[in-house]
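User: Fold this, then the next.

Assistant: Folding the first:
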Amino acid sequence: MRQRQPASGDFLASEKGTQRKKWKGLLPVALIFPNRYGLGNSNLGFQLVYALVNSLPGFVCERFFSHDDQPPVSLESGRPLRDFPILLCSLSFEQDFLNLLALFIAGGIEPLAEKRSENTSRFRPGQPLVIGGGVASFINPEPLAPFVDLFVVGEAEPILPQLMEHLAEHLSSEEPEVLLRGIAREFSGCYVPRFYAMHYGEGGILSRIEADPDVPARVQRIVLAKSEVAGHSTLLSPQAEFADLFLTELGRGCSRGCRFCAAGFVYRPPRLWQVESILAALAERPEDTKRVGLLGMEMARGEDLVRIADYLLREGCALSFSSLRADAISSELCALLAQSRLKSAAIAPDGGSERLRRVINKGISEQDVLSAAESLARAGINHLKLYFMIGLPTETEEDMVELLSLTDKVRKTLLGVGRETGRMGNITLSVNSFVPKAWTPFQFHGFAPLTALKNSIKFLRKGVAGMANTRLVVDQPGNAFFQAVLARGDRKVGLALHAMLQGRQNWRQALQGCGIDPEAYAMRRRGQEEIFPWEIIDHGIDRRYLWAEYRKALEEKSTIACDTSQCRRCGVCHD
């Protein structure tokens, strides 16, 4: 069964006609989001790449999404995946890795890059060039290294147009090895895994990474320095996760330095777009679209939010967002929230206690959370979501006690406002297991034992049971454990994913069948000098800084936010 073709209303005015391009004389490109359709269409990076490739002369780009076990076909024309000589794969989460391999198999594409290139003298339909991108791939590309010919490391705008033009000229005339070697040598931000060998020593621990002589020893990621018009939605679809929501980014990266957050490190330096660029993006919104989502509100300047809020109020727009920083709620923002008639909002303290928030460098206090809860309740929001993590480094039962205490104080704050306004509030307490991520100070730490995580969940369930108007939602620690294996994974883990799909085994069976101990990948603490597979990528971050931040975390010491005008601590902003 074919996926539906898009209705004419799916595309903003600037994109109309791109899906109607004829293939004759054009190089077809498949853009794959290995997740469900709605979420893909609401992913701003995915939309940006789609619009960018379709704007290039000589190309036509069509979209693919995961669709159970059915053979994947493009959303625009219903063509099968095997018709496309270039596959661009947008990867946002570690869970996408397995979905991508399953999509290849369902589409009749050989997953292993080595086998694909063995059977062809040129990249072509059926034996395509597979290009990986997206934040998950430049945090740690190694689990997908056996399957991807080329990774674009970093942000697409500075590199993708030139790369695609190069492919248009050379794809059909050069052998795969020659084409890829030329790209690895000539283009910054392009990582070709086949030209790098991983060597392991005692205990199966990575001992060195060896690059071919004519390619860079490490691959430097590429970032966009500034944007005249901030990134914004270019596709609106009734089937999307946020169907009628126009997304606009306020900047990229984050200056706060939360020690668990990979995006906060790999998107360094933090870049806040000028308010004129943001207003220019908002001006691209279709007149009949009144819901606006702002991305990156945690780093926006107060005076900029005032101007943005004033613009949205004048335009009669409603605001939507994923979560707010508890210390960034202004009167202007609350006025906009009140007009938006939002009924729910989310705050992410992340650490359950004041002590843990120092450990993770969250930079917000209990009073910040309580003040935010009161301000949001007075703005008409009567359902508050609180996001916490369990299994954080140094966590104790006392931290769980304080998490419950803070939740109860927030509940009482909402009830107090509710008695005045006649709107009774309720809380969803969302608890997820901490997963150590590459390129963070906590890359040296381990995933918590499953028994400890399950005991923490039981403790929280018992505590919440006595709180009226409070609901607890938890993830399954086993799922987070699998994510931790992938987050710290290497090529051996990638090959185990392939075996998992071939043998229809669960992930534990597949890993063990390939001689991989999942506990060793996820739970083992790393030392200061250990080499990590993801360090083939160069984000400009000094690992000595990450180690120092890890030690500060264990000592419960905070670090001030980035100031790119003068801060040179982490190494990214060095000349």
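Now the next one, as you asked:
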Amino acid sequence: MTRLFNDPTAFADELVAGFVAANRDRVRAVPGGVARATASEPGSVALVIGGGSGHYPAFGGLVGVGLAHGAAMGNVFASPSTQQVVSVARAASNGGGVLLSYGNYAGDVLNFDAAEAQLNAEGIPTRTVRVTDDISSAPASERRRRRGIAGDLAVFKIAGAAAEAGYELDEVARVAELANERTRSFGVAFTGCTLPGASEPLFTVPAGRMALGLGIHGEPGIGETDVPTADGLAGILVEQLLGELPDGVDSAAGRPVVPILNGLGSVKYEELFVVYAGIARRLAEAGVEVVAPEVGEFCTSFDMAGASLTLFWLDDELAELWSAPADAPAFRTGAVAPRELVSVGETVETSSGAVMAPASEESREAAPHVVQAIDAIAAVIDAHVEELGRIDAVAGDGDHGIGMQRGSRAAAAAARAATEAGAGAGTVLLRAGDAWADRAGGTSGALWGVMLRALGSRIGDEHAPDPTAVAEGCRDALAGIRSHGKAEVGDKTMVDAIVPFVDTLTERVAAGEDLTRAWNAAAGVATTAAAATAELLPRMGRARPHAEKSLGTPDAGAHSFALIATAVAATLPRKDTP
């Protein structure tokens, strides 16, 4: 288990601080993550990578000359927020544009895509390459839906070397896409991982058994088998990967390939070397030309006992870029010429906040009621954080509870601060939404940020919120969720609870009911709908590959929405309350 921590909710921030303190000659802290401590060529492309914490050396350990220029580092097992990605990209930018690259997970896609749009709007040309190397997470016909695991090292190394060689942005993106298309990975696990502060692992594997095709966030595997010998495991890994050759690689014989044997946290280097001996022998038997193999930890999952094998199939261009020098905290090859350190004054800082919008007296008087509602949200999440994590861990990564806790607490603090500064009700919601998205990260963080901002924009600061404005704001929030998350009713997401909530609230308000009665009715409908998701199979997100495992368990996002709707209902004035 993970034994050494202080406050579990501060774990990611504290690990970044320690990482930077230990590597000041290579990385510097910037808002949202880390960037190179050394200067880059003016006008060159900057590679910005990122994802959730808990996977070291992914992602901060791969920042350095010849590799990434910056890493956006989210909370534990949660994607970085849009603002984190934007902040790191600004700090890393050299004037030649930015390439964003990350593992293909729903929260990362939401936040990195939003960051790409924002950076392009700011005049910083930005492209994206998602890593999709895990062959167990989707069939070959749906490669774009696959998740990224240890193969991200191959993609990041190629993109970083191309940027260092002076490639233009589109060319860096091209060669990174080529590297991704030629990278395949497959992993196994013997035990689950335990998040800081948790008393139980996210998942367990029966004694004497091995899970096949696991994910780096603790997603359950797609099958089990008896624990093999080291040589038996080597056979499984090689057989799986040679069974799916990339386009352009007609036969393994005579083809150059980089094998990357990755330990997931608890499997020791000695064990990995024993396994690699079997891998090397089998690759030789297949006639493969092994180039610069890597054995070690490259993308971990806390204390998970397991390993993955990546095969990165080279062509002449990729071979040259793979062999190019690199000097990052966790990956070094060749000789890198000394570089000047970036001065502290060049570190990009985020602004302290926008100027407070003017508000009417009625809107300012309503602001404390908004704060009360958001405080109730934070309180109900605190009370159910372990339950939400448990539900999420059934077919996901188990971080929903702690992510919602971080987000709701940040939203409550931001709402109080805005109210004390004289904000109106709409601005309070806008500030709360920004804080939720930025602090929580992940899919739920991004979506709750969207919802609160949509509601705040509709309510505004000119008038006190009335039932119609609130109902319309909730419908705007639903539209935002559908636009960003792409989910619909039946996909087993929080949309299954939000849609009936919004429909009921809108109908009741339109019929003349006061907000308290209408909201209570809508909350009841949402609670029923959330419970009914237990009978659905997920069709989106990390839970999709393990759909059958979630039968009988409600969706964590739908359940948390129902809890929140009910908690907010308790803060609304009763009919006999003045």
